[in-house]
Write a structure and sequence with these properties.
By secondary structure, this protein is mostly helical. It is elongated.
Length: about 130
């Protein structure tokens, strides 16, 4: 299997993750609203609105990863995948929930390494 095929498999996996999370967020998943209120101190209405905005952005990220995975979006996907995995133990869930979700940040990291890590600021948009 060549690198291009491998990258496409990874892109599909990352896009699937972000579409799935985005759709749950757009639906206002109650558990996630609870985590936002617990960790940020926002009221439920504001946390729900924030979650819906996050969900919409997750769908945009999925689309960009599929169409043209620029490095700045890959870096965001790595950060966001790591952070959302870490939220679970921060909100009182098991640390294993974090470990189970390592692919959430590991897959976009693999794409970034296949495409080349950005060395200059201008490389972030390539």
């Amino acid at each position: 299997m060549n690198a291009k095929t491998t990258e496409w498999i990874l892109r599909l996996a990352v896009a699937g993750e972000f579409v799935g999370h985005g759709m749950f967020a757009l639906q206002g998943k109650a558990q996630w609203v609870g985590w936002i209120t617990k960790l940020s101190g926002l009221d439920t209405t504001t946390a729900t609105t924030a979650l819906i905005l996050i969900g919409a952005f997750d769908l945009v990220v999925a689309l960009i990863i599929l169409v043209r995975p620029v490095r700045i979006i890959l870096l965001w996907a790595i950060f966001w995948g790591f952070f959302t995995a870490l939220v679970r133990p921060l909100a009182g869930e098991s640390g294993w929930d974090f470990v189970e979700r390592w692919a959430n940040w590991g897959l976009p990291l693999a794409i970034l390494f296949l495409r080349g890590y950005p060395r200059l600021l201008k490389d972030l948009l390539k």
